[in-house]
Amino acid sequence: MSIRVGEVIAVHGTKLVLKIDEQSSKETLFYEGEKYKGVSIREYLSIQRGFRDIVCMVEGEFLDEGRTELHDGRQTFVRKVEARPIGYFDSAGFTQGIKYLPMIQDAAYLLSEEKIRSIFDRKIESDFRIGTMLKEEIAIGLPWKRLFNSHIGIFGNTGSGKSNTLAKLYTVLFDQKLPLITGKSRFIILDFNGEYGGEQLAAADHKAVYTLSTLTNPDLDDPSSRFPLSVQEFWQLETMALLFQATPNTQKPFLNRVIAGWERYGAIPGSLENYTKWAFKIAFCAGEVKPATLDLMRTVAKLMENQQVQEMLANITWHRTGGRFMYNRAFIGTDGAQYALHVGPTVETLSADGLDVFDQLVLRVNLQLISDLNAGYVQFEHIQPLLKRVESSLANLRKVLCVSDVPAEERLLTVISMRRCNNEVKKVLPLLFAKHYYNDHKDTVANPPDRTVHLIIDEAHNILSAQSARESETWRDYRLEQFEEIIKEGRKFGMFITIASQRPADISPTIVSQIHNFFIHRLVNDRDLYLVDNTISTLDALSRSLIPGLSQGCCVVTGTAFELPMVIQVDRLPGSKQPASEDVDLEKLWSNDVADGLE
């Protein structure tokens, strides 16, 4: 038995009205050793109907001023509450959903804390706990197997506790389930602000941290200063097109010819030198020489650090009449005689020794453009922007990428910090990393998947935004299409994405619509609230109304892994485990002690 608090007096579809006893307004009650919460908003009541207890959540309260009753000789107004059924208890335990409805005069009872806990803890491992329910103050276990088998969204304004929730979720997973997931799953964090490079989430022996920087030259002896890519992956059309933002109609086919040349001749010793010499000869002896080829050849000679060829090319001029090259006022004809006499011997001194893979790429791009211009395959104006992007981007990419056939050591958790990278690199690298892990996993995983990859993107609006004005519309569409493919198709291959953002309305609606489970902290912007209201079908109106006023660390949890929305106060992590995103303590920073120490 429990404490009777009232009875049903009206049933309007799934909306119930209960007449409540006056004495039930106390916040906490004790009965036969059990603790009960009094009647208030978001509390739970049990309505007996036959052998079943129908569980209802209180959504509103009012006084019926048209009716009064006598209590202890004094007249009081009738207190009424509005409630909504959410499930029922029977011999098998709690079942979520509206199957039975009460009738008028059915008695209403308070639910004990143990009964409430059984509503949320049923059929799941209740030891996976990241906090307590806000109102009931009950520690509730999360269904971790169903939760991590889905795409997760963690949203909240800055300072709302979003980063702590993300860190807490995965810290508890690694602390409690490490033996179960080691060797079967990998976790990758794209960390834009450098918040997870310390002791956060997992122990150092299970964690690899890549601290990328475009501000300084990398330490070549430190493998953590550059992200490793295999040579084969670097020379893929998809990788090249992504790194250099190639247009699909002209620049991608050009890059494809560059890569085809590498695939055909790249493994042959001396082939790059022979290719360079051949391209020079074809350029000088062509029927109609393109003036742009001279600048391209000068770029090649400078890249190969050949002073002789550079000096020789300085004496070469292009003559408009007939479109010919001239050396010391003599035309170089198509028969090759003048070339062999004046130019060929110097060109033979070219050497590709000492060029790394990045220099080889620039060299091949210039040589391919020389060849294509002479053959009439392309127009220089169409390829020149790509050439400039290749030359300018490689200065930064050389600092953050290591192209090698030596495989990187695999760890349970990989953190890729891009805090010290410039905006250009931050825009391209996350997409490269996502495709790197997605393609590798998709091509090697069994069917059904025998292992999983979990991609965690903190501050996801940096890369998943559909509103960016700093990039071309074509590139933005390409970037979003790649991530949308991963989030739409990745689940069948065992790849899952967790995104955390303070502006969910900026993220592509397609991506948000594919998220299964949500941890929603305080949001106050109308666009964000509109998105939440129209995207999350499992969020009830009462929980939604709480979002703008949630306190720090408090969040609404809902989704396919949770049959009922919950409001949880997430436990704060210890200092060393917290992500490096804490607010500045101005009281400490501006204190007299600190000021005196600076004098």
Fold and architecture overview:
- Helix 8 packs antiparallel against helix 9.
- This protein has 20 helices and 24 strands.
- It folds into three domains: 4-123, no CATH class; 144-223 and 407-586, P-loop containing nucleotide triphosphate hydrolases (Rossmann fold, 3-Layer(aba) Sandwich); 232-402, no CATH class.
- The strands form five sheets. The protein has a ten-stranded mixed sheet, sandwiched between helices.
- By secondary structure, it is of the alpha/beta class.
What's the CATH first level of the largest domain? Answer: Alpha Beta
End-to-end Cα distance, whole Å, is: 71 Å
CATH topology of the largest domain: Rossmann fold
Give helix % range.
25-40%
- The CATH homologous superfamily of the largest domain is termed P-loop containing nucleotide triphosphate hydrolases
Structural class: alpha/beta
Provide the residue-averaged pLDDT: 81
Low-confidence stretches: none
| Overall strand count | 24
Map the helices and strands:
Elements: E1 4-12, E2 15-20, E3 28-31, E4 34-37, E5 44-49, E6 52-71, E7 74-90, E8 93-96, E9 107-110, H1 113-121, E10 131-133, H2 144-147, E11 152-155, H3 162-181, E12 185-191, E13 207-213, E14 227-229, H4 231-234, H5 237-243, H6 251-265, H7 271-285, H8 292-303, H9 307-314, E15 316-319, E16 324-327, E17 330-331, H10 337-347, H11 357-375, H12 380-400, E18 401-403, E19 413-420, H13 423-444, E20 452-457, H14 461-464, H15 473-493, E21 495-501, H16 509-513, E22 517-520, H17 526-535, H18 541-546, E23 554-559, E24 562-570, H19 586-589, H20 592-598
Parallel strand pairs: 11-21, 11-22, 12-19, 12-20, 13-19, 14-18, 20-21
Antiparallel strand pairs: 1-2, 1-9, 2-7, 3-4, 5-6, 5-9, 6-7, 7-8, 10-24, 15-16, 16-17, 22-23, 23-24
Helix pairs in contact: 6-11, 7-11, 8-9, 8-11, 11-12, 13-15
